[in-house]
Design brief:
InterPro entries: NAD(P)-bd_dom_sf (IPR036291), Sc_DH/Rdtase_CS (IPR020904), SDR_fam (IPR002347)
Number of helices: 7
Helix content: 40-55%
CATH architecture of the largest domain: 3-Layer(aba) Sandwich
Organism: Paenibacillus glycanilyticus
Mean pLDDT: 95
Bound molecules: NADP nicotinamide-adenine-dinucleotide phosphate
Largest sheet: 7 strands, parallel
Order of helices and strands: EHEEHEHEHEHHHE
CATH class of the largest domain: Alpha Beta
Protein name: Short-chain dehydrogenase
Shape: globular
Pfam family, one: adh_short_C2
Keywords: Oxidoreductase
Structural class: alpha/beta
Length: 263
């Protein structure tokens, strides 16, 4: 893909992208830093080969209040402020077995990972944005918030639904003060983790193609014919983070190749 017309669009901007060592977070880090932003990213583990020009890293667990504190300290120390906050971290570790297999602990873990991590970071960094009268916040929900899947991810889907509602409320409250809050709802995105899952399923499905089709079928099919790519999500995030999206407030952008079949 060639996005050279926006080569230096983020020059002078300071961005925090959580979960930027893998998947969509990594693609967004590369996209923003490539267009001139000074970027700070976070994860629990830093890969030994993680060297991207203009990108700083802080090790932190977003599900814990002390993780939020470490990230906020690093924003002040390494970026000297913040213009763009992209809350990427999310996911599910719940077991299979449907709603009755989920304990309080599973629910709390999903809520911490998919809702409260973003809430804590927003609450800590919004005062800096309010002081400068400008800032962009992006939340990452999921199509599962409107299309909950069977088996293991009901708590995840419900937490993402809460995140989307929270995102709208935050936008309503802070848009008049120059803060732009929006959300991205990805469908099936072919990250490294998805590729590993496809490899595992291929053993019983017979081939990678059969495994991929099996995964797409479990979503009811993808009309576009393939999963999205992390770089495609990064392009949407870059647009929403840029001044080109100045009048877009309180929206959620679905990027799913048409997976959700209803309006
Ligand atoms: N992939 C999809 O198809 C899909 C679909 C819909 C929505 N989403 C959403 O999109 C977002 C990104 O998904 P992805 O699949 O691109 O993610 P991913 O490849 O699983 O990467 C997750 C990133 O977050 C970090 N991370 C995980 N847990 C963390 C924690 N407790 N504290 C700090 N960092 C943590 C990981 O590093 P460490 O493990 O080292 O901490 C990694 O950098 C998530 O919110 C996910 O729910 C994904």
């Amino acid at each position: 893909m060639n996005f050279s017309s926006y080569d230096k669009e983020f020059q002078g901007k300071r961005a925090l992208v959580t979960g930027g060592t893998q998947g969509m977070g990594l693609a967004i880090v590369r996209r923003l830093a490539g267009a001139g932003a000074k970027v700070l990213t976070t994860a629990r583990n830093i890969p030994s080969d993680y060297h991207i020009p203009n990108v700083h890293f802080v090790q932190a667990d977003i599900t814990k209040p002390e993780g939020t504190k470490a990230i906020v300290d690093a924003v002040k120390e390494k970026l000297g402020g913040i213009d763009i906050l992209i809350n990427m971290v999310g996911g599910s570790n719940s077991p299979a077995g449907g709603a009755l297999a989920l304990t309080d602990e599973h629910w709390l873990e999903e809520l911490n990972m998919n809702l409260l991590g973003s809430v804590r970071l927003d609450r800590s960094l919004l005062p800096i944005m309010l002081e400068q009268g400008k800032g962009v916040i992006i939340h990452v929900s999921s199509i599962q918030r409107t299309l909950p899947l069977y088996e293991s991810t009901l708590a995840y889907a419900a937490a993402k639904a809460a995140l989307a509602t929270y995102s709208k409320g935050l936008s309503n409250e802070f848009a008049p003060q120059g803060i732009r809050v929006n959300a991205i709802a990805p469908g099936f995105i072919q990250t490294e983790a998805a590729n590993r899952l496809i490899d595992r399923l291929a053993v019983t499905a017979g081939s990678r193609e059969a495994a991929l089709n099996q995964l797409m079928d479990s979503l009811g099919g993808i009309p576009f014919g393939r999963p999205g790519l992390p770089e495609e999500v990064a392009e949407l995030a870059a647009f929403l983070a840029s001044d080109r999206a100045a009048s877009i407030h309180g929206s959620e952008y679905v990027i799913d190749g048409g997976t959700i079949p209803t309006v």
